[in-house]
Amino acid sequence: MFSLVWVLAAFSGLPGGMGIGVGTSVSSFSPVEENYDLRFRTPGVSYGIVASLDAPGPLVFHLGGEYFSKKASSGWDGEISSMLYWAFPCGQLPVMDGFSVFGGPGIVGVSGSYSGTDDFGSFVEEDGSSVGFAASAGTDIVLWGPVSARLEYRYGWMDMKSDRVLKDGTETVVYPAAETDLGYSQYIFSLSVQLSAVDDQGI
Fold this sequence. Notes:
Blueprint: H1 2-12, E1 19-31, H2 34-40, E2 44-54, E3 59-71, E4 79-96, E5 99-117, E6 123-144, E7 147-157, E8 159-167, E9 170-181, E10 184-196
Antiparallel strand pairs: 1-2, 1-10, 2-3, 3-4, 4-5, 5-6, 6-7, 6-8, 7-10, 8-9
């Protein structure tokens, strides 16, 4: 992720007037898988690093990654954790000075693990990764100088098939392969600092 930020910083110095901002985020993260609601009951909290690359005109690129972890409610031993990555080319519209709205589709990826006792009393462990797509919409608000806040809603669509899991420490083949819905929704709050401003003269 840090290497990505440095790459963006290099691009921001190229002719064309692009600007870059970096910051941190926190979000309420809710997987849509039915078993998640049954087992974990409430949304989790994720934390991440965000970057934005502003091009002259109405286009902005939002990129980032975040970590999500959640332990089950009392009475069950389940746990889920994952790393989520995304890239969104968004259209943005200034509404007034220091306030703009944005929205657009993007690509998302996830890598994570799950563990917990299943309905038959076996302790199951599974990990995997997947790529999908999502839609994003929100607002950017300038707070002071180069510091801004972003309020955003995002909904993602992903799934994953798995044909091998660990049951009580022994690898087990699953046939037919089990399919898991990795879709999610989240409300995100982030703070960022503009490292270089957009130069509209570079169009």
